[in-house]
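Review form for a predicted model. The reviewer records the input and the model, then writes brief findings.
Reviewer: anonymous (R2)
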Amino acid sequence: MTQPQPALVELPPDTVTRYVEAHQELLHRLGISPGPEFLMSLAIERENPMELIDVFCATIVQSLRESRA
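Model under review:
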């Protein structure tokens, strides 16, 4: 069985900039980020990557709260 090959997709510079900003916001809030490419893959259905940041952070915080309980 052959492995699927990654697809190379050209994105408008504004899109790349928004996801780099989202990546930087995660670094600022949490000190860690999965990277702009990963954020793009999570946000395929979303217009605004900053919405994803809020969801991502909330998920991590909730997970930490549950692990302490």
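Findings: The two ends are 45 Å apart (CA to CA).
Further findings: The chain has three helices and no strands.
Recommendation: see findings above.
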